[in-house]
Fold Thymidylate kinase.
Amino acid sequence: MTQHHQPRFITFEGIDGAGKSTHIGFVADYLQQRGVSLVSSREPGGTSLGEKLRELLLHEKMHLETEALLMFASRREHIAQVIAPALARGEWVISDRFTDASFAYQGGGRGMDLRKMEALEAWVHPHLQPDLTFLFDVPLAVARARLDATRELDKFEQERSDFFAATRNEYLRRAAQFPERFRIIDATQSIADIQVQLAQLLDVLLEQSVATV
């Protein structure tokens, strides 16, 4: 008999400036060193069409419902072209953002009716949810300071503090609603301390995913 890891879907969430992107490469390397075959992707984006939609979504002003619909259109393509095929092949998928981001940004930040968000979620991926979601959480002042020190900002990153407060609150509401898959990471810690925590959580998921054939 041989052992292998059943496919898992991991997502990374947090307001802009929370630092989640710093740790995606670490997670990919950690899993691959333990024999996991994986695909790393992002939203919006992840496909040729998705990357074109990403440019529009990050830089063009539009009605909030148009924004939400385009996010889910990009997501549907992402699922069809990347996520579902990889999981079907037995690979793991790690994604920089997924539907929790739409609830947080379009629902929380923009104020779109959450019932509409739920309807889109049920339509676009009724049976697919992440197995594990890392929510990188920081105070708004810390996130803003990090953004101001980095690069040219997209339209979301340029939003005011009340937008990010509402976005963060919706993230935390989602985490409370789905505690079985969310793990909140205090992203004010050092990179080394965060990665120790991530490794411990990944070890649990790896152990749970082992199958014998």
